[in-house]
Amino acid sequence: MLLSNLVKNMLVSGDFSDYFSTFPPSAREHPESVVLLEGEFGRESRIDGEERGTVPVRVLVVREDAAEAEELAIAMERHLRNADWEPFCEAGPWRIVGLDTTAPVLKERDSSGRYVWKFTATLTVAREI
Q: Which of 36, 92, 95, 98 could disulfide-pair with 124, CB 3.0 to 4.6 Å?
């Protein structure tokens, strides 16, 4: 969850200050949210004292209005792709050394009728061991 917090901090720095969660919240409590789901670390290489690999962070943008969900997802992805992420690159043993994103797409209309758009920020990271 440390890396998804770094992604959240990058988004907040771009004036995206919506409700963020690391799990899909109740539609009743938070009808419009941004959910950050951190995936597992996949090691690609290991050297003395450090290993490198990737960690996907899925970003779900949940809104009542379809156009608003799409616009926000596109703006957030663009911000992450173009942002200076170096001020947000370290947390605990993790250090972000690269960031790539996928294009936002409509995931679904959830059971409460909200529109969910998604994209993935794939973080290339170094982990101190």
A: 98
Show contacts of 19-27: CB within 8 Å, 24+ apart: 24/60, 24/62, 27/110, 27/112, 27/114
2-19 residue pLDDT tens: 899 999 999 998 888 777
The per-residue pLDDT for range 106-118, each reduced to its tens digit, is: 999 988 899 999 9
Nearest to 36 by CA among 89, 80, 92, 91: 80
Please write the tens of the pLDDT for every residue from 25-72.
777 777 788 999 999 999 988 888 889 999 999 999 999 999 999 999
Phi-psi domain of 49 (left: phi exceeds 0; alpha: psi -120 through 50; beta: other) = left
